[in-house]
Amino acid sequence: MHVWDYLAEYHAEREDILDAVEQVFESGRLILGQSVLGFESEFAAYHGLRHCAGVDNGTNAIKLALQALGVGKGDEVITVSNTAAPTVVAIDAVGAVPVFVDVHPGTYLMDVDQVAAAITPRTRCLLPVHLYGQCVDVAPLRRLADRHGLVILEDCAQAHGARRNGVIAGSTGDAAAFSFYPTKVLGAYGDGGAVLTDDDAVDRALRRLRYYGMEERYYVVETPGHNSRLDELQAEILRRKLRRLDGYIAGRRAVAARYADALGDTDLVLPATDPGNDHVYYVYVVRHPRRDQIIQALADEGVHLNISYPWPVHTMTGFAHLGYRQGSLPVTERLAGEIFSLPMYPSLSQEKQERVISVLRKVL
Ligand SMILES: *Cc1c(COP(=O)(O)O)cnc(C)c1O
Question: Does 216 score more than 80 pLDDT?
Answer without folding.
Answer: no
